[in-house]
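lol ok so funny story. i was supposed to be doing the assay writeup but got distracted and ended up predicting the structure for this chain instead. priorities right. anyway since i did it might as well share w the group, maybe its usefull for someone
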Amino acid sequence: MCTILRSLHTIAPVFKPRLADIRRSHTTISKMANIQDPSSYLANARIASEIFQLRPDYRALLMVVTNIPSGPSDSASEAFLSSAEASAKEALAKTPVNDIAHVAQWKEAYKAFGAKPKKTMNSLEALLRRVDAGLPRVNRLTDIYNGISTKHQIPLGGEDLDKYQGSPFLIRAKGDEKFDTKSGGEVVIEHPSPGEAVWCDDGGVTCRRWNWRQCSRTALSDGTSNVLFILDALEAIDDAKLNAAADELSQELQKLSADVKVERRLLTS
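and the output, tada:
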């Protein structure tokens, strides 16, 4: 009998998947769900109540855009970004950066969770301060959303959905969350300050200090074709202006291909 059992065991060994394989499979399924059912994906996005305690006027417009033809900066993105730079220069000639209402409100929001806005500027202010010297040309997608950000005076970030793990959520950090960035060309792990406003996915922090710096893991590249965009608004930007920015972003991306699909959701208190 023992001989028979040993023989059977040899023929049909019990398969025990490794933990790493289980995690990899879960991540793959999660990424596919991001793209295949954008509506459900966005429905699971959330903003913690403590964020609204900092800024009751805060709203986030989330957009899932799929089937975007990937590619580097091109003549079309160059023309769009150059036009946005010209529009921003015209606005800045009338109103200095510090006096732009939305910039000023984001400075106050940063102070509310302990950040120093002079040291770590919100993404909108950082872009506006680079307009005179010229905005960076990164890749087609980044150039387009940077143009939208400066033209409409709204902080705006883009995340590669194929690298994103689960739905996004905005919280105040405990301080032990992982944030991967690059230093000297090498990936390094940092941690947010306790109380810092951070966007996250199931893999860690994707953007520190609300809209200051995005992680390297989910950064857009020349090959990105599915994107999560996050548009941040405070009182100075009402819902009509916020939706106008989202409309123009959608229109610019849909010019690239008839296959581009857009799904969006506005998160409020």
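The domain at 19-45+58-165+225-267 is CATH 3.50.40 (Phenylalanyl-tRNA Synthetase; Chain B, domain 3). The longest helix spans residues 75-94.
back to the writeup now i swear
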